[in-house]
Amino acid sequence: MPAKLPQHDFAALIHRAGLELPSAEIEELYAAWENIEPMLDRIRGRATRPREAEPATIFQPEDLA
Amino acid sequence: MTFPTIADASRDLAARKVSPVELAQSCLDRIAALDGTLNAFIKVTPDRAMADARAAEQRQMSGTARGKLDGIPIGHKDIYGTAGIATTAHSKLLQDWVPDTDATTVRLLHEAGTVMLGKLATHEFAFGGPSFDLPWPPARNPWDPDHFTSGSSSGTGAAVAAGLILGGTGSDTGGSIRGPAALCGIVGIKPTYGLCSRAGILPLAFSLDHAGPLAWTVEDCAMLLQAMAGHDPQDPASVDRAVPNYTAGLGDGVRGVRVGIVRNWHERDRPVSSATQAGIDRAAAVWRDAGAIVSDVELPSLLDFQAANFVILTAEAYSLHEPWMRERFHDYGERLRSRMVFGGLFAASDYIQAQRFRRELCAATSEASRDVDILLTAGAPAEAPRIDNVPKFDGLQQPGFTAPMNQTGWPAMGVPAGFGEGGLPVGVQICAKPFGEALLFRAAQVLEHAMGERSKRPALAC
Q1: Any chain B CB within 8 A of the CB of A61?
Q2: Is the pLDDT higher at A48 or at B49?
Q3: What's the CATH number where B81 sits?
């Protein structure tokens, strides 16, 4: 399935990350992006995720003492 | 002594049938003969090896040997910091970097008396490979050098399988110990998160990185882990708890142990080759015959774990590499930069959502595994592919079997399970609850004795 994000928007993401890449390299990465969008849908698209669901990185104060 | 295991060599050293110097020299001779084909080493350190071996010999002669690993030749994956010896991460960016101190696990293994033969190939920064555009070539599979070792602990996998070292270190952020174990036909364990210090090892992704050993046998892995495990204040993830004796229970079998087969992973989410499936089926049968209680469990989809792992891994990795990614992008190999770049494209909320998702996946895994002690699935989908036929974005196109236990932090082992149609090894993966390493070793050894074909070595190395 083609990526939902238009290629020029993908190129903008690359630019925002501070990377100046040849257009051929951006094109190849954009082709791979179509495999990544479904992953983002999986992690974002949890309508049933409770508001209070915590991330796995939560810590206890003594951990950082 | 062509292919001694660590346990065999340890007994022979104690009985003075062989000296540490002879053992080290035999490994150096094998490296000289075979590593031109295998590329398992970034750097061989013969002077250091002989100095270590002579010191071990002195201890042996004076009755002050340090234990079962004293005089055992090993190698370190080249992301493990070694004082005074270059630690390159197999990358142009670090090819001249020489750390001042040893990684904690390097120090522990040195204090146990091991003999360091050198630094071993890895995928670039433990992530990008196999690559042909780096200062060193990729390691090749001793069972057929035209084939892939898996990675990223590629040099350790190749060197152990070919008998160049008796054991070695690896790291595992998404399967980098268990993958080479499967494709190289050896044993490797990713211990519980926090059991082995990560201090002094070049990080890939902080919340997923694990250090652990690879070796030819289960017992050898247990011996190495015994030396590597333990609390380290230098690693904030390090767990402060007593380390059990990992070899004490070997031979006790699996009677009464509850095994859960994760069929939805290797039969539905990513169906494995017939040889790998046969290995899993045989492992279940062996355990059942040995008195284990075998049932099925259904865990969250591999696709769910893949999504969380990819976002977390690349985002954490990009945060480490960001200055170089911006300024020296093309000094990285093509494979590494093309994979890691995505970590710089995600929103901060994507990373947090991935960590929230991770907690959900861990809870679901724990709940589904409530009534079992061990999980059984594939270590890799099939035999090793040709090294020139590994897709650049392999990890994006299909989910792997190993990343879930990097999410949970549970211990997981790669154990040989026979050979495929092409004559290359296949492996199973077994997992336990946190700090269940001793149980894993016991259960793995039952499989090893029944189906491991441990007397068969790569023809190239014989």
Answers
A1: no
A2: B49
A3: 3.90.1300.10
